[in-house]
């Protein structure tokens, strides 16, 4: 009997093993046609989306990058996975730089620049997008936040759309719109006084809307010329379009967001230009190097340049740093207001032109262009002096280099504030021209006497490096929309329940009012009862008669 049972158990085991485990298989949904578009903003608006596009192309999708001639070069590194399509030259007299005022974030000149840009480019771009989307049987469009014709063409054709953003700028991100976009304040109202909050809400906001009104009017006019009666509102809370943001909690201020918001950053490039041999030798031979760069569009004024350079030279003389690399374009060097010479408090005089040529001191390097990521990646780069653009901050944090931020406009003041709050950098007031304060902040970071910058950066670097994997999550999200959408462009599963609820029901005001009414009724009854009791005559005790 025992032998029989043993044989049966062996046969059962063999039978089970022959069946094997069932491995879930994901259905092959087939290749789709995906267009990524950006025409303004330069590489910081483009490269991170093409990184996501590469992942999608590797998964078998047909991915293309739609732009204008000046930006075609940014698509070259991603070929042949991503095809670049140009809509033609930049046909406007307005450049991206003109859309920001470093002194007043939303000035009249800025609103005028937006109007001119729309008048020059909207119709050409709209018809180009419409034809491309229609002729290629597009399955999904990923439009830059500044590309209104891209939104409208996709919306008219009922093509699923995702907006890609470099900063939180929509109602359903609960973005600190009032305090960070058209003021130089912090990204939230937490540290603002009552007066500042009142000013932002009741003075700055109406002023912004007043300045923006001509732009809204021009948008309406341009749409009418192309036959669009009702356009797409990209910043509306219930627009039903996913906003894909190259940001993360830690740089963004944590707050509730809607279901149409996806933080997918910080997306770091797959490859970067390596250090040329002479620069590598320089960094190898210097232990405490400061790197200075202000992006493609911004350059310090003559006064700002003088304060920054004087601070660097005095730190060099005090042996706080032993060299610097300043990425300062040839065009920026031709500014008429740059000082001819710099005198430090030690009495030393430096001729600026000699510094540009590298004749004064080989430890002080000005470069027309520098491989930024490679410099920040070197162990001897100890500080990055930056304008505070998102891409620059991402690269610095990924490499664990603390920041001294000199913000100009747009999202930069809010970014600078956030980095200071995170304890991985300090922020300068560029309008103050404060040499003492600049020097003091530079020393605090470089010396780091209590080790706080290093300690804070360790956790931030880990956070950023782990978050940098999210380009695969972004690709998953795009595919999710591709295959789950209904009625061509209805991202139904992300729509908030409140869209189909009465306002009173969604806010619970009906039950709140009912409860309030009940409470008031109870109080009224109690009060009436109390008053009635007060009006009752006092009962006199009877006197006893004795006989």
UniProtKB/TrEMBL annotation:
SUPFAM superfamilies: UDP-Glycosyltransferase/glycogen phosphorylase (SSF53756). InterPro entries: UDP-glycosyltransferase, UDP_glucos_trans, UDP_glycos_trans_CS. Residues 1-20 form the signal peptide. The chain crosses the membrane at residues 513-534. The keyword Transmembrane applies. CDD domains: GT1_Gtf-like (cd03784). Keywords: Glycosyltransferase, Membrane, Signal, Transferase, Transmembrane, Transmembrane helix. Belongs to the UDP-glycosyltransferase family. This is UDP-glycosyltransferases domain-containing protein. It comes from Helicostylum pulchrum.
